[in-house]
What we know:
By secondary structure, this protein is α+β, with helices and mostly antiparallel strands. It has three helices and seven strands. The longest helix is centred in the last third of the chain and has 30 residues, at 129-158.
Amino acid sequence: xxxxxxxxxxxxxxxxxxxxxxxxxxxPPEEIWKMLYWxxxxxxxxxxxxxxxTSKERDTVGATAHVVGEAAGIKVEWDxxxxxxxxxxxxxxxxxxxxxxxxxxxxxxxxxxxxxxxxIIDSELPYSILGKIIDxxxxxxxxxxxxxxxxxxxxxxxxx
Length: 160
């Protein structure tokens, strides 16, 4: 095949698309943590349209939620389960159903000026090879922009 070798590798790769963003917020970890609960995320992350817990517990391993999002005009809906949890410090989750396959995590680290929030998501939408290219080129780019914008919005909300 002709063309750019990295494009060829990209087409053949089954790797998930990764978004990793961080921001420093002049607020204690406890204040930021409250905004990382699934039902609070739509307040600051516009690409998440709705999120509701489907389990009684929300701050423990095994907690579940149903999430609806949209990026680049593509609606996605998924169920999520918390797989690791240390309150006010870190949480990991994975999808358990829906039209998005993803794993993600949020980590908080105390800094001299406040707290650094590190947000990571590895995701894949269920498409053909062509769809995966579009996912990487369009949906992932829009999601990345949306997360950057959301983190700035969260910072503004918490630093009022």
